[in-house]
Specification:
With 470 residues, the protein is an alpha/beta fold. The chain is built from 9 helices and 20 strands. The protein has a domain of 265 residues: 3-Layer(bba) Sandwich (FAD/NAD(P)-binding domain), CATH 3.50.50.60.
């Protein structure tokens, strides 16, 4: 167990300096950033499911959130309520956001600029990468660094070698699938959501990086609302074992997810016209490419990143495109002697927040109203599909493609941050405007998204917010 466990009775009998709701990326990196000497209570809705039990049973307490989907595209959302949250199921893809992702309005007239810059996050990106034991290399010209990755990149596939010889816009995917450090070496089997050897970073297998004297853990207890008195957070309302209880604290940080954070704030009486609105998520599909010189045998499941279609003037019209090169599971050809001369590339595009896509309360429980991805995302995906043959070596041929995915497992945008309390729910340090001592962490704060996986950025922002607590 990460911290000493307490019962609901013991928790309710104490006055805490800080209560943190949730135990995944944002919650734990916020805790890591806190100044020493605080009495902290981490409240997790789910239970502790050890890695071995997850492998044996497949159970990780997947939430089933009601949804009204009026789009013509199937849409799923993935949230797991257990100790460590979605860190148990992610694929450990851990790139930084592109510097221009933070300046979309200024550069391209799209959405809002972020209240932080790439340079603001640099020291926090570095600490999170060290904590996760991230590996990578080759991306410095586009994603500036002040030092090397904590660990070298995984071995490239034959396909990676061919792509990197063709263009300098292909390089190793930064990942927290181990290639050095204390965890087992990545087995490259392509079943990363369950990681049979516990190689990828999770909150559970890196618990020593989140030790905090004075922290306690309350499991199987759901934070339902924050108690707000005279403009200040003074505690939380919790449901546990069929009981409704109140627990007092001097400050509260919500690190559940973009849907549950919004629901908690609504139940807390926060009356903001944009709260819950702007729910969005990346869109993606895969292509299959055949040709000489392609093949597998790389050191991890996803070995490459392609940035040729990511940033540029095209983002004034449609999304940029991030490309991922898959090593496993392998897609094989039927041509004799050419079995492995095949490559799968996943194209990922950014979405934009729309007010119609939102979280509401229905009988006091969250419900998702979904009208579909923004045309900006669909147009970017269509453009990427047209452009990818033009950036590949001439002897490669695109032979197939998949339907768009139903989920990238990265809900964002429901409590966006910024400097204007009339338009934004929180400030750049995740502090809720107008309520002292209340934080809303995580990707719900993102005013725009990115084609890149958000987990590293979620963690860096939370770490930065924790470091600012006094």
């Amino acid at each position: 167990m990460m911290f000493p466990a307490v019962s609901i009775d013991d928790a309710a009998a104490r006055q805490w300096d800080m209560i943190i709701a949730g135990s995944s990326f944002s919650a734990m990196f916020f805790l890591r950033g806190l100044p020493p000497g605080l009495d902290v209570l981490v409240i997790e809705k789910g239970r502790h499911i050890p890695h071995g039990e997850q492998l044996e049973t497949g159970f990780r307490n997947l939430e089933d959130i009601p949804q009204d989907n009026s789009s013509d595209h199937e849409k799923d959302w993935v949230f797991h309520s257990l100790l460590g949250g979605n860190s148990n199921c992610w694929w450990a893809c851990s790139p930084r956001f592109h510097p221009n992702d933070f300046r979309m309005a200024t550069l391209y007239g799209i959405g809002d600029d972020w209240p932080v810059t790439y340079d603001d996050l640099l020291p926090f990106y570095e600490e999170v990468e060290q904590t996760m034991a991230v590996n990578g290399g080759g991306s410095d010209a586009v994603l500036p660094r002040r030092g090397p990755f904590p660990h070298p990149a995984h071995l490239p596939t034959r396909s990676d070698k061919k792509l990197r010889a063709h263009s300098d816009m292909w390089w190793a995917q930064p990942s927290a699938r181990a290639n050095g450090g204390n965890r087992a070496q990545c087995c490259a089997n392509g079943i990363c959501d369950r990681c049979p050897i516990d190689s990828k970073f999770t909150i559970l297998n890196t618990a020593d990086q989140f030790t905090y004297p004075g922290a306690h853990l309350l499991l199987e207890s759901e934070v339902r609302a924050t108690r707000i008195e005279a403009g200040r957070a003074t505690g939380v309302m919790v449901q546990a074992g069929g009981q409704d209880r109140e627990i007092s604290a001097s400050a509260v940080a919500l690190g559940a997810n973009a849907v549950f954070n919004a629901a908690i704030l609504m139940r807390s009486g926060l009356d903001h016209p944009d709260l819950g609105r702007g729910l969005n998520e990346q869109l993606a599909r895969s292509v299959v490419v055949d040709g000489p010189g392609l093949g597998y045998f790389g050191g991890t499941s996803i070995t490459g990143h392609g940035y040729a279609l990511y940033d540029g003037a095209h983002r004034t019209r449609h999304s940029g495109v991030l490309m991922e090169v898959f090593n496993a599971p392998a897609a094989l050809r039927t041509d004799p002697g050419k079995w492995t001369e095949r490559m799968r590339i996943k194209l990922i595009v950014e979405d934009l927040p729309q007010d119609e896509n939102r979280v509401v309360l229905d009988d006091d429980e969250p419900r998702i109203l979904w009208t579909g991805h923004h045309p900006y995302a669909w147009d970017g995906l269509d453009w990427g599909m047209r452009e990818i043959p033009n950036i590949l070596p001439d002897d490669l041929t695109m032979v197939a493609y998949s339907p768009p995915v139903t989920s990238e497992k990265h809900a964002m945008g429901t409590h966006r941050f910024g400097t204007d309390p009339a338009r934004h729910i929180t400030d750049d340090l995740h502090r809720v405007h107008g309520v002292s001592g209340l934080y809303a962490l995580g990707s719900g704060a993102f005013p725009t998204t990115s084609p890149a996986n958000p987990s590293l950025t979620i963690s860096a922002l939370a770490l930065r917010a924790g470091r600012a607590v006094t």
